[in-house]
Design a protein that fits this description.
Helix content: 55-70%
Largest sheet: none
Structural class: mainly alpha
Bound molecules: zinc ion
Shape: globular
Radius of gyration: 18 Å
Number of helices: 9
Amino acid sequence: MHINLLYGIGRITASICHIFLQMNLFEFIIIVLSAFLIDFDIFFSKFAKDHNHRNLFTHSIWPGCIILILGIIFFNLLLIICGVSLLIHVSIDTLDWGTNLFYTGKTIGLKCLISPEEYKNIDEILPNYKVAHSFFIFRYYNNNGCRVAEISVFILMILTTLFLASEFWYFIPIYFFFLGIHLYEYKKLKEIENR
Ligand SMILES: [Zn+2]
């Protein structure tokens, strides 16, 4: 899923936890970060199978499990929440395109944005686009499930921030920064493909 949506989920998680744990700014930021940080493995895509960052170790369940187990061993609630948050991220990523969940080299997930036939014949589909990435971006924004998820997470993020963690409202603009990057990318790709 897109990074703005994961940031939103991070804020929702952190805001709910804040009600029970009265977190400080550092703890709040760490939980939000844990929701989307692994997507920066995209800068290491060249080391991944098929140059897909979701095939990297970071997009398997193992980093989340390791952090979760460390949290349990050291009785550290913050680590436990971050571990769960990492696991939520990779679980969500199984819904749209799937991810190398167990780091076995196999892409696992519902893969709602691509049919099994398309998945098999992806090498024949992508050359139909001037930029291969267009296929993935267009599928995402043309999918009703993704649109509903984007809107629902945004609304929930605003509500949970307002009612549960209003003192941490001021870095909500980061959401719009990430959303802006994705929408700009969508607009650019549309222009390129329509040329
Ligand atoms: Zn991801």
